[in-house]
From TrEMBL:
InterPro entries: Aldolase_TIM, Alpha-hydoxy_acid_DH_FMN, FMN-dep_DH, FMN_HAD, FMN_hydac_DH_AS. One of its GO terms (molecular function) is oxidoreductase activity, acting on CH-OH group of donors. It comes from the Bacteria. Its cofactor is FMN. The keyword Transmembrane helix does not apply. Residues 19-389 form the FMN hydroxy acid dehydrogenase domain. This is Lactate 2-monooxygenase. It comes from Humibacter ginsenosidimutans. Belongs to the FMN-dependent alpha-hydroxy acid dehydrogenase family.
Amino acid sequence: MAQFGDYQNEIYFGGLQGTTPRFPITSADLERAASAALPPSVWSYVAGGAGDEHTQRANAAAFGRYGIVPRMLVGATQRDLTVDMFGLRLPTPVFLAPVGVLGICAQDGHGDLATARAAAQTGVPMVASTLSEDPLESVVGALGETPGFFQLYTPTDRDLAASLVTRAEASGFAGIVVTLDTWITGWRPRDLATANFPQLRGAALANYLSDPHFFAGIDGGREAKPVAIIQHWASIFGNPLTWNDLPWLRSLTELPIILKGIVHPDDARRALDGGVDGIYVSNHGGRQANGGIAAIDMLSDVVDAVAERAPVLFDSGVRSGTDVVKALALGATAVGVGRPYVHGLALGGTAGVTHVLRSVLAEADLLMAVDGYADLATLREAGARRVGAGG
Ligand SMILES: Cc1cc2nc3c(=O)[nH]c(=O)nc-3n(C[C@H](O)[C@H](O)[C@H](O)COP(=O)(O)O)c2cc1C
Ligand SMILES: CCCCCCC(=O)C(=O)O
């Protein structure tokens, strides 16, 4: 059975033979190289967070407070990292977190397709953002057999919201991830300094521009001037959903609904009572609210509150395979990689994203081998020890 850790040998032997594409290995080196590769205003959008970015830094640093305790003489020569969730058997516990505006991070403008192709090559599921530069139908097409989830930014225009969900269901997405924490934009100093909001310049509106319901709300319809189209988009983008909206969301689809942005255990319980199928713990990578707690520090509280009633997805601050293993040990069902794959995309399109995913998976797999955990159930049972340092 092939193991994710085999990528290590591919890199070593490819290095000897000169066949492996040379991408940086650590997330810090990837980040540095991507910052040089992208135009400065795009870089500040990707790298930036809310306020003085304390929460963003805390997300990553807080992983340093947790440790895996190794077990010996186990012989974990074969590791099983498969995950069952939402009726799917997934080959990896890692997924691609939704990132809007991927187009501006790719040389040919088709960052969503490039990412979907990397998902197809690695089997890593992709959560595709509403804010895509390629329409959702073509993104799911590029995923091939690999499952995709559609991330919904719920517009205030309910017909448009319903249409996006219906299109996602019809085109083959396996679930709908509803993002709760970004109905309004947080205070993002780096974007304010460059007055840079790429999607407001139309870089990520393919899902809207391909939807007849979107044009129904604009004077002049499809013939309207670009500025009127973008103004209309900005006026309907963010819907401050409340608990009262859950039955409406539920009525839109038979697909599993996963709520992204849950951090409080009581919210997780209430969401499940309200009929959703999955909880996605995230603080949006510190891009929305500064002054918050690191997402990983809330994971086990949410996992306890969910009490096995549903899968718990996690992102925010994941930078390595070690972080993935820690989040899994703390009870996550699957772990989302965010900014690191955008860095890979900026450096090498599909090949760059594939490299990042394979590196993260290889490190996770090798850590489990060395630490004596042959599968995720055993790892989860052992848990992660809180060690106090870091963050
Ligand atoms: C450039 C960028 C764009 C993002 N766009 C979206 C989006 O369209 N929808 C969404 O739900 N989350 C979006 N996110 C948040 C990610 O899904 C994820 O929560 C976050 O990147 C996790 O933090 P990390 O990358 O620091 O680990 C975006 C993040 C970044 C960096
Ligand atoms: C008007 C809000 C746009 C948010 C765009 C995408 C996103 O989630 C991000 O973090 O950036």
